[in-house]
Design a protein that fits this description.
The chain is an alpha+beta fold. The protein has a single domain, classed as Ribonuclease Z/Hydroxyacylglutathione hydrolase-like (Metallo-beta-lactamase, Chain A, 4-Layer Sandwich), CATH 3.60.15. It is built from seven helices and 19 strands. The strands form five sheets. It has a seven-stranded mixed sheet with strand order 3-4-5-6-7-8-9, with helices on one face. Strands 10-11-12-13-18-19 form a six-stranded mixed sheet, with helices on one face. Helix 6 packs antiparallel against helix 7.
Amino acid sequence: MQAYICQTCGVQYSPSNLPPEQCFICEDERQYVPADGQKWTTLTKMEQGKFHNNWEIEEEHLFSIRTVPQFAIGQTAYLLQDEEINILWDCLTYLDEQTKQTIVESGGIDAIVLSHPHYYSTQVEWAETFDAVIYIHEDDRKWVTRMSEAIEFWSGEVLELSNTVSIHRLGGHFQGGAVLNWTKGSQGKGVLLTGDIIQVVADPGWVSFMYSYPNLIPLPATKVARIAEKAGKLSFDRLYNAFHGIIDNGAYDSVQRSAHRYINALEDGLNS
């Protein structure tokens, strides 16, 4: 049996003799099934191709990892080396021997923390390889495509992983949508890793919020206001999103200012 991977979203399913009949992640209105239908692959097939993972040092103790050429959604994962715990924030589908070696040489992974279901990828493969715990908010339990004893469903609004690292449920894009706050990052001014629960946009210094990005379905103003309120309680000056978008400084104000603009637009407050 093989653990099949959806080529559109990059999420891996439990081992089976045949590919799944459908990808319920893609059939949800926040994602999509391509016009030419659902296609499947496996890690074995991917290893026979031209994929590799690129590493970049973002700042001291924080690395970004991206698969090249782009596969599926094309998100960026981050390896955070805290004094107490090494954390992989979000996950990539592709995992090869070079990536394993690089991570082992970097001290391994203790925990894999997910922002939301679109980035579950091959999280079980990663967890089993590095003997890591997977943290997923219980509100998103129904979206898990491959169960494992490594998965720990956390509840409530905050989970402290160390003295300087905490996970916060903001909701929005998904009910259990989470961000990671690293207060020691950015030279002690704080870092927020957001996946696309909070999305960096083209205009520098601004972010946005969506229910569905590929289908351009906005979030209600009330949900964005709630996200801004929760983010307003966190300490951060720099923000990294799921697609290597970065607000290098002033990110706290950017989130609040952007939420105000978003809500104003939905309430017909634009000058157009």
